[in-house]
Amino acid sequence: MRASLRFAALVLVAGLVSACAVDDPSNRFAQITYQHLPDIRLDVGEIQIEQAYVTPGREPNVDHRFPVQPKDAAARWAQDRLVAGGDRLTFRYIIRQASAVETELPKSTGVTGMLTTDQSERYETRIVVEMQVLDGRQVQGTAKAEASRSVTVPEDISLKEREQVWYRLTEDTMNDLNDQLEETIKSAFFPYIML
Fold first, then answer.
1. Which of 102, 104, 144, 103 is nearest to 127 (CA)?
2. What confidence tens digit (pLDDT) does each residue in 80-93 have?
3. What's the rounded Cα separation, in Å, for the pair 28 and 67?
4. What is the b/e burial string over 70-91, where b = at least 16 CB atoms within 10 angstroms of the residue's CB?
């Protein structure tokens, strides 16, 4: 009886250890941050970040499976870079779109299909941010910035490699969006920028 109890305890401990060893995909990748870039100080009393995009959570959308979801990276940009330096007005940063869509690509068949490694899926990200300056409920200025990227993957790609592709795709899309946001804010909201 004691031997079977010890064996059961060992199995339980081994199970717990192996469960802890299973790598959570969200832990394999660093958060995408923008704290290394200069602040954008605005002459407003408040910065509002609104997540208007809702992840569908089903195909063809796959953004919910990304190690860093595009919507989270877009929100992080505003948290890291936008600073309220005034005492009135509101700057609203609205994430309208932050999707990643998977499209299956045609594969070779027959002998050609056995001898080649085709690109099997295309992933396309699109992030759209709308920005507004408000005085109470009255909109004083509005502008939009957007970025999109796509990449294809081979049919023999592993899950780990696919997640790395997704991470880089989010990062590259956000780098493009960063450039667009900087340019748009400087041109459309010039009167509200604090030097």
1. 144
2. 999 999 999 999 99
3. 8
4. bbbbbbbbbebbbebeeeebbb
Which backbone phi and psi does 86 adopt, to 5 degrees?
A: -105, -165
Q: Are 133 and 141 in contact (CB under 8 A)?
A: yes
Backbone φ and ψ of 6, nearest 5°: -60, -40
Instruction: Say if residue 125 is exposed, middle or buried (CB neighbours under 10 Å; 0-12, 13-18, 19+).
Output: buried
Structure tokens at 182: 């900087």
pLDDT value for 182:
97
Instruction: Work out whether strand 90-104 and strand 46-51 pair parallel, antiparallel, or are unpaired.
Output: parallel
Task: Give the rounded distance of the alpha carbon of 60 from its chain centre.
Answer: 17
**Topology of the domain comprising 32-192:** Double Stranded RNA Binding Domain (3.30.160)
Tokens of 142: 């509005």
Q: What pTM does this model have?
A: 0.82
